[in-house]
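This part of the workshop introduces the protein records we will be handling. A record pairs a protein's sequence with a compact description of its fold. Comparing a sequence with its tokens is the quickest way to learn the format. The record below serves as our worked example for the rest of this section:
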Amino acid sequence: MIKFINETTEYLQSKGFDKPEIGIILGTGLGQLVNELEILQEVSYNHIPNFPTATVEFHKGKLIYGILEGKKVMIMQGRFHIYEGYTLQDVTYPVRIMEKLGIHTLLVSNASGAINLDFKKGELMLIDDHINLQGSSPLAFKGVEQLGERFTDMSAPYDAEINSKFEKIAAAHHITLHKGVYASVVGPQLETRAEYRMLKTLGADAVGMSTVPEIIVANHLKLRVAAVSVLTDECDPSNLKPVNISEIIAMAEKAEPDMIVLFKELIRML
């Protein structure tokens, strides 16, 4: 993997990706952030050596490098999921590349379902902790110790100082920002009523199919990390309705302006 990482890094450096400070993974609800960026360089995933091969869903996936609020940022426009058939090493490979290029902070967004019924769809949740229910670890491979500490500490995977800044920004802009625990499952199917009850018993406030692998690797690489979820649906096992994809997309779009304010203001403060 070290050989692959070096090849990918050298390629991106040759394309002008010059010492980015902050990495951003754009999930549902933050796609328009690129419109706020002074784009300096962008490269499609399928042109990058050793990068995961994009599926149909992400055939437009790009790495974008530019200036946002005076900081050099590197953005993943389109992420990878294990439910698409990728390995956990594939899913997290871009995080290793961003760190090798120079980032010190990783910011992540995603869409999730609200397990905590005090949280409503269209609102945001700051991730304070997580539960990994994906069945494995992105660090579970031979030679991982050559890239960082094998037994990575996860007592505080999300940066408390960054989370505090997020909360202050939300308060100043009158944005509802809950704080809670995110459970990450494999997917792609949604959960049953019994699974939602289980997740609530485990202490999850929201559930999704991404983010946790990237957070684990970011901690392995000793990056500062923060993540925000767009709550796109309410997962009430006593009143569960069939999934309405168009409504989920609408909820993500509703929350997007608030998400962009949070991320732009935070980056300006870092």
